[in-house]
Records
---
Amino acid sequence: MAGRKLIIEAALHEFVAKSTNPHIPYGPDEVAADTVSCIAAGLSLLHFHARHGVTGAQLWTDPEPYRDAILAMRRRGVSAELPWYPTYGGLDLASFSHIAALAADPAIRLAMAAIDIGTDNLNDFDPETRQFIDPDSVKTLSHAAAKDLFDLCRKLKLRPYIGVFEPGHLRHVATYLDKGWIEPPVILRFFFSDFAPFGLPPHPECVGMYAEMIEMVMPDVPVEWFVACAGPSIWDLAPAAIAAGGHVRAGIGQYHPTSWPDRTGEKPTNAEQVARVARLAQSMGREPASPAEARAILGLDLV
Amino acid sequence: MEKLIIEAAINELISKQQNRHVPYGPDEVAATVKQCVDAGMSYLHFHAREQIFGEMRWNEPELYKEGILKMRALGVPAELPWYPTYLTLDRFYQKHVVALVEDPEVRLQIAAIDMGSGNINDYDPRTKNFTSPDQTKSWSHNFHRQFFQICRDLNLRPYLGVYEPGALRSVAKYLEMGWLEPPLVMKFFFSDAGPYGFPPNPRCLEMFVRTLELVLPGVPKIWFTMCYGHSIWDLVRPTIELGGHVRVGLGQYHPWYWPDPTGDEPTNAEQVARVADIARSLGRGLATPAEARAAFGLPAWSGAAPGAAR
């Protein structure tokens, strides 16, 4: 896999509070400044949430904070080609209103949407209290509901970035291709977690298992895949992903627990995490992709 | 290596139109079970079904009891471990389980739970349609806790069905919280008919087993491989070689929602015998029903003598 360009993604903040890590960016100006630092370190795919500049509250369906952040980072020299995607708070079409607005906005032209497929128990488990968080809740996305989201992506000319939590979800994806609900290239993210007992365990061998299963269930389909991990085990998984031809998502948004205090006291910056992935990749013979290269690898101009 | 336990799921939801050898009522179940035990089966799963049309009788204990007593009358050992089915886990639908546990002639000791949440829909490759695409299987952690409490109250050993490796990680937490106790008895689901879980091939079986060791090292456990569809025959040999146990049976062999295009119509006993032959060729002995019972951590049978209960 040496020679293949590596896309380094960062999830800048997600649900993490500044009280957990003071380097968490909140509003558009902080997001823009943080993104500039990350780009300098090798970032080529960005994920952030619209959050209130003071309180950090999630502003789920408001397109303005996204727009403000994107325009602010461009003014600071970030390439307009940088691929990025927002979050959303529900799986109904109303929860996607900001995504539709950002896709239609000629100054922004959002080109990707994350779709976390499947149904699963994704609850965090606090190792100190030995309790599940919210143990009655189940993350639910039926096949029919996934189709609605893929239809919306097609209508808005968005490339789905498909989140996979279990091996079975890869088989879902192969079936969705068979049905014509999605088209190649297929962009996947494999979720691992230190905090919630779902999926394959966050062990480097398991990255290889996922890579093997792609070949089994989608032979000959162009696939680009990322490894993401909630928690510090990302550093065990990143080398395996780089070696197997995958890409890596880092970022302090996924690094800290959000259901209990981080007891490690570790407080990295996003740019430090991106730089660490970049150094690792270079030591393994893979150069970080530029934002324009990432855009081409992800097929964003083809949708 | 410990002796191989061969389980058979003899009917499930399969109709006689799909395979004329599928047993429906208690007499047919008893006759099938006798043949399977003679072929090497030591663990049984069946659904109570009405004799004429094969209708499912989800929560009637009588049909189960009749099947059990009739198979004993044919010489099947009373030690044979077995478990029924159920539609849901609410009190109404558990009533047959409670009755079968409390009945001194039956004394049911195992309850299966298919763990976790997922989209467990079949996908017909010819029509390219999902069965019930709006439907999800959504069983929260608390739902599992309630089930395990029922098992503890009724002195039932849970038989843990695992579709995805995440369920193994959940089991590790359930053990940590004391919701479950070892030995764990687990069943890995594979499927040709539904696109969920690990793909049904020998390499993925190895992945499952490796994941089991990564997640539950040192925990006393036994595991079975099952597969909806004909790929079970790709999985039997590696399962036996890796120290697992095997579930076969017509109930899982044919598609549930469309005709089996192969026309293959084996009997349950033929499937059991085929597994037994593979085990012998690999030098692995077969467990008796009493040995299977011991492997599950169940107490030795001390109920009515075989055949005594009419």
---
Amino acid sequence: MAGGFVELSLEFARSINEPTDRQEWTDEAWVQETLHDADAFAELVRRYQGRLYRLAYRMLGNAEEAQDATQEAFLRAYRALSSFRLDASFSPWMYRIATNVCLDMLRSRRPQASLDESPLDPPATLSVEGAVAERERLRAVAEAVGRLPVGLRTVFLLRHEAELSYEEIAQTLGLPLNTVRTRLFRARNALKELLKEWL
Amino acid sequence: MRAELSCDEALRYLQLRLDRRLGAAEGVTLAAHLEACAGCRAEAAGFEGLSVLWRQREMVTPPADLAARVMAQLPERAPARRPSLLAPVLAASGGMLLLLAWFVGELAAPATMLLEGLLNTATALWSDPLALWNVAPELSGAGLAMTLEVLLAAGLGLALLAIAGLLAFPIAGRQMARAMEGAS
């Protein structure tokens, strides 16, 4: 009986604290909801699937692995939801998990490669031979991003694909703000060099 | 507002401008530098071109059934929050500290009595070593008995505190580490 009363009180507290339109709920509110009702996780999946898939696609370079990475990221997040601090922000936490999944997949793909120090593969610039077709240009951008050392690629994509702020990237990757700024600068410089014939 | 900008600073400003983090005053300074410096103008054009190229990148969309696949692979039970041990453990540690403080307070009065007794004994023995038998009752008096009693209790309290600490800190440490680490 006491348990029922507590449940009722919690339900009442939730009902007065949350906006009536569930679409307006914050991510963190949906996390809280998922702790009571597993199906509520679907809303977080709906909100983040596109962003995480695009990040994974650019990190890994192909659709199949991007899909696996996205699924794995959501699964890891779901399993870890009970340890998510409700006063924290969900977005960097979720991106951190997705980034770690991608990095794990890249490591298992090339175990000998150092994530931060791997040099750019030769040739230094991409060829523009033949017709400058739209398709080739798009492929050139994707290839150039794929040639960035992983440490630079991650920061670049979190900034330009996920559109996170410097602070959010620092939080996501556990890096000092200055390192984020430096890596972003180096990534842009490298891309500018790789794509100079397209600029 | 600074009148001049070095090329290194101009490059840093260019990065900030790309991220819309450049203030209006810095923007003016950068514009003045770019007008005067052909090298930095070329760099700026390169970065702008890169931005344009990136905005025109291939758009990718997740497979239509991705969300359904994700939901299908989840365990059925909701990921219930584990009850935190942090609060009870900290409360227990606080309680033990209060107990220790009480013991220390209790110890003060008998310790003074014991000290006085010892002082009297020393003084008596100094003047007449054979008077030991006469002052012996001072030592076995209330001060000594109470002090020993309280010392014993304080020792017991300290031992309990040490045990609580040994249990509390690893648990509290793990809880805090888990909370800070999230799911990484």
---
Amino acid sequence: MKFTKTIPLIFCMMISFLSTRAQWDQAIIQNPGSGKFLAGIYGNADYNSSTITSAFLTNFLQGSYINDNLKQQVVSNFQTANRLGYSLNYGAIGVLYNDTINKKHAFNFFVALRHKDYINANFAADVFNIAFYGNAPYAGETAKLSPFNLNSLSYQQLEIGSVCTNIGGKAKLGVGLSFLSGQQLQEVNMSTGYLYTDTYGQYIQLNSDTKYNASDSTPGHTYLNGYGASLDIYFSLPYKIASKNGILSCSITDLGFIKWNSRSLLYNKDTTYKYDGITINNLNDLQNAAINNLSKDSLQNKYFPLTAKSFYTSIPTTVSINANTDFGKMNLELGAWYIFNSNSLPYYYVQGDKSFTHGWHTDLQLGYGGYATYNASIGVMKQIKNTEVKFDVYHLQGIIFPDKMGGAGALIEILHTFK
Amino acid sequence: MRIDKIKIGKLLLGLFVSGFIFISCHRDSPSWDTQILAPVVNASMSINNIITSSYIKNNPDSTVSLVFTDSLYNLNIDTIVTIPDTVLNYDETNILGTQTINPGTEMFVSTPNPTTTIYPIGSVELTEGILQSGYLIFAIRNPLSQPVDYYYKVLNVIKGTDTLHVDTVIKAFQSLTIKIPLNGYTINFKGPSGNGYNDITTSIEVYLDPSAIPVVIPSGDTVVSSKVSFTNVIPYYAKGYFGTTTKSFGPENVAFPVFNKIVAGTLNLQNVSVNLILTNGFGVDASLILSKLTSNRNGDTIPLHATGVVGSTIHVNRATATNSPAPASPVNPSVLNFTINPTNSNIINWLDNMPTSIGYSLQVTTDPLGNVSGSNDFAYYGYGISANINVTIPLSLIANNLTLADTLAVNFAGSANTTQHIKSGTLTIYASNGFPFSAGLQLYLLNKNNIVYDSLFIPATQTINAAPVNAVTGIVTNPQSSVLTISLDAAHTQELFNTKNIILHARFNMGNLPSTYRKIYDYYQLGLKLVGNFDYQIN
């Protein structure tokens, strides 16, 4: 499963993503002045959750036994709505710095090739309880499974764009257009879901209003299952407050869609399912009374018949805004972003940037929102001649307190400019 | 501190190597314990579904009977008309001194030609016949150095317009065997006079082939060597006088599988009805003596006492010919039907023994009065003398610890992968019993060799209670609910879910008024719901 294979990268590579990737890469926007061309690679991965602790997820991914203590740590984090999100984003960028200091030429051009994975969910506490404790504790009770939303999306992106660095003086405007190759999609949206377990277990009843979309996952069709396009827009404007200079930036990233091919699967039904065991007509039918028939395709076909059909989906779109003010010895940035179609809350943050000698640069960010509540992140950057190496670690709360909080992430980026 | 490119490269390499090692360690899937409470099986079964027997019959008044029909014995045509294998030898030796035989010259001919002989059929005197099967085998050896022509005919054996014959050339010093199937041939056994019986008329002529060159045969040398065999001849139709013969059958046992699944307890039946049907499809008078008819179970043998049936001579008239073309029956059989019931026999005790087999001894005499038909006895293949027994047992009974055992193929888990995850738990049976009997259950688990290796004991105190009945009508008023619980430790859980065959013992007893016969109706239902509450490890 992709989820289990990619999430460990969070812990292994210590890569982070969300707070920085919500914005345009500064290398595209800002001509460092050290060269005509820039080429870079980056990779970031991020896991964050309001509920699922880092310890729980680590054990899950390591294939360990998940004991009651781990489960209880998650239970203690339950809220009305519980969120988790994971993303993996890596790729390469190239920039042609065509603008000049005197702004005789004001346009820079860039190209990027990226791979993006998103898995995120919004779930009720009972979903976790049913999955990890079973339905027996709910005998005679109704487990509330909704609202439940799960998105799992993978796609590749080829982007070309341009940034005008001289709009009305010092404002900047960037536009990027992308061709998208849809690889994998699974979307579950259960707007209504109640699971009732009879007091004596004589029947189980599921009331469900569920929509399910999935790309073709049959062997041989696991890479190119759809195509689409997206648009990135960036705009920044300098400002001055109390003699302090600053830049107000806003951006829209990944405003687009993917059309999935005709082998894609849909399910959309508002119905009630009642299961009262495998019906046998006589004692000789006992050989058909297999428990694991409950998970067989036949059961899925009976209760969740899927239709093969092409459809469109929106990709997670990020809207961000921030104001970065130069206080001389350090910069202070206030910002917020929100990702549509991602089960995320709006994220608000404050970040301090401090530059040191020998090309060192650090930052510390404190935030609220996203897939967790409180977040803390640190970053360090080293400029070595024409090479810039950036390394950020995010969601420190989940790393420092893995038994209580969930989150970990990191980013690594290497950029090099050429004359 | 100054970090150069080499140090950064080493740092990145270290991170990637660490990551690779970390990922490489992820061999297992995570696991955790859950508790699953879910229905496994539900069933609503009538008596037909519970006993799953083809002997269950629903009656128009919704009562249910066990009906068993089987044949005790069958006498076919070949038991009264036996045509033995017969061999006719045709050999000729030169006793006339050295001779020269020219091409086309006759070497041997039957004398007289044709020759009529009596076919050895014993006391049976046949005048006509049609053959069902059998072969004529003509084996020839040519001892000469030139080809020889053989012409063999059986003049009174005809199929359509063709006489049974063999015309063949046999090469020098060769042997030849020709096999001709006899099915469909008609035989007139009356001979050339038209008044004989069992007669067979043949002709054989042997010539030196016209294409041969003259042959010199020394004195004493064999000239002709041939053998004609009639083998495995079974008639489809035979006519004549079959003779007064007596044949004995038995003592023999025939299976009576109605009570096979009962392994213990007692059964009191309120009423039974047995019909013994004797059918004579032969055009021959017959008398029968059924000297015994026993109910056998586990060494207990109860003879049937039925006046006029067992131990008496029973005369069965001959069948009459319908002269109807196929596929209509060629005979109109004579049928005798003897009803055996509690008033004229001990049939109740006989069946309360719950026999697993029926023993019998029988003596059949054909033509007991001699040739009263003027040699017009006849018989057709497939239409003989048979004795059939028809047992009808209305299910109105008293059961006392009546225990049924049934071996059932099961597949609770479907795959070993599933069972490994079930750690322990409880199986609960929720029963809604619409029958006027209580039932105690016991499960025995069989290994792959179908040997019992473990059992799941359900305490005797846990039974499926009998439904209450109306005191006047004896009909169940409403189903009775019961709950049976089977606690399973990890070992028993594994065994239960791994087994592919179980033996289910169901012990039945009466409800209230245990000495009153209770009828079973086809609308009575036993509702069962099997619910599992398992500690299940997801992996």
